[in-house]
Design brief:
Layout (H helix, E strand, L loop, with lengths): L1 E7 L4 H14 L4 E6 L14 E9 L2 E2 L1 H15 L3 E7 L8 H15 L5 E6 L1 E2 L6 H11 L10 E2 L3 H19 L1
Parallel strand pairs: 1-2, 1-3, 3-5, 5-6
Antiparallel strand pairs: 3-4, 7-8
Helix pairs in contact: 1-5
Length: about 180
């Protein structure tokens, strides 16, 4: 399959997720185009791809605006092709955080009037060296408010699970196209 992977990142962890997705699918013989939603991509023609994978991190309860803009501007094409949405947040990494993490996705889909065929809620990362003072305050007092205080960098992404979920998505889409 020719797969378009579009991502929105602030500190870079979702870019790492998108690159993992690309490498994993390329190893299985798929052809991947990676696109940072913050940048212009010359000659991008979404309907030319067999499937699309969208990925964005969450900050202050919202996915990245540039990824939302990509969905809004390409909604018609996206609705007609197999799609997977990967939401990267810290809520999903904490016990009892599933509903909160899902609510971010519900808001995005409702805002964009679009729903991906499959959605994955994936744990993000803490990268304190990339935060300015107020970002640090938000992470400490809002994002981590009711959780154990973590003060060093930590990655919460379950890469093995992500690989299994990607395999499942590809298998499903291959079955549909047979
Ligand atoms: C300022 C700030 C606000 C955040 N707000 C939320 C939030 O509201 N909910 C959440 O689950 N995670 C939140 N996070 C965690 C990010 O989603 C997580 O760090 C993610 O890995 C960032 O990915 P990125 O590096 O691709 O931007 C926040 C992180 C920062 C730095």
């Amino acid at each position: 399959m020719d797969v378009l992977v579009v991502y929105g990142t602030v500190e870079g962890h979702t870019q790492k997720v998108a690159k993992f997705v690309a490498t994993h699918l390329e190893e299985q013989g798929h052809s991947i185009t990676l696109h940072d939603s913050n940048k212009k991509m010359e000659g991008l023609w979404v309907p030319s791809y067999d499937a699309v994978i969208l990925a964005s991190s969450v900050h202050q309860q919202r996915h990245k605006g540039s990824l939302a803009n990509f969905i809004l501007s390409q909604r018609k094409s996206l609705a007609e092709m197999p799609s997977l949405f990967i939401s990267v947040s810290l809520s999903i990494a904490f016990e009892g955080g599933h509903n909160e993490a899902q609510s971010y996705v519900d808001h995005l889909f409702s805002h964009c009037n679009f729903e991906a065929d499959t959605t994955l809620l994936v744990g993000g990362a803490l990268q304190f060296d990339k935060y300015d003072y107020y970002m640090n305050q938000i992470v400490e007092h809002i994002v981590l408010a009711e959780h154990e205080l973590v003060s060093e960098d930590r990655e919460f992404t379950n890469w093995e699970q992500l690989a299994r979920d990607l395999d499942e998505f590809v298998k499903l889409e291959n079955t549909k196209s047979v």
